[in-house]
Predict the structure.
Amino acid sequence: MRQFKLYNSIGKYYDLNSTESFFHDPEGLGFENDAEYERIGSQFLRTESGMKQPEPSGKIRFIDYKTYNEFSKFLQNQPLRLEYTAAGTYYMDVEVKKIKKTELEVMGLIVEIEFSGLGPWYLDLIKHMEDSSLMGKIYDYEYPYTYADSTQGIIRIDSDSEIESPLKITAIGPIYNLMYTHYLNGKVIATGKVNYDLPEGHRLQISSQMPYSIKELDNIGTEVNDLYQCSDFSTERFLWIKKGVNEIFFSHGGSEKIKVVAEALIYYDSV
């Protein structure tokens, strides 16, 4: 059974599967190519190609005006995250483009809603980890995080998507000069290093999610330092998950155990 939910920017969610607010007649869940062609004689040569901005849409049946007004207040905190569950659960970051409201009738208040997608659909990934002694632990969160408890560790991520997907790495101090190497199907494709002495309890976050960032967070998650200039510019620094077996090897120059959190969103053209 397919289901839809919305999450707003302050962490609240709205269930669109209830009898009080039911989302139906969905459209725009697929993929549309945005290509340009140049005519050469009787043939056409493709000059540019890419994914057209997705615009998922549908209708919501509200039981009354009060329920619709509550939904309108929920939408005030954008951007939103649209959750779609059918053969798996997928997400898309969206903003509301248009709402068309009718009058309350016997069947309820029917509202047409259209979203502007801020990127493709993505899947929360289950990660697998091995530390240097093959004694890793796996902890389940809303985004499944993987922790490596050793001075060296490997996080493995398998992807079946043709689209490169962003990766957010969070290392928990104390860490001295974090180093990492990305292997794809056994071959090195990227490396990174951050020359910084991270104190205990603080976090070093390296993210290829937009906007790219390398920063230090304190123990409550507040940014305290922009560490971009501390990164090694002779390396790639930002990592992207590619189709195949991705293994990321971590180490640092200290003697303390290293704790690493990896968050990956696997992108898909269509769901």
Remarks:
- The mean pLDDT is 86.
- The chain has two domains: 3-119, 125-268.
- The domain at 3-119 is CATH 2.40.30.200 (Elongation Factor Tu (Ef-tu); domain 3).
- The helical segments are 65-74.
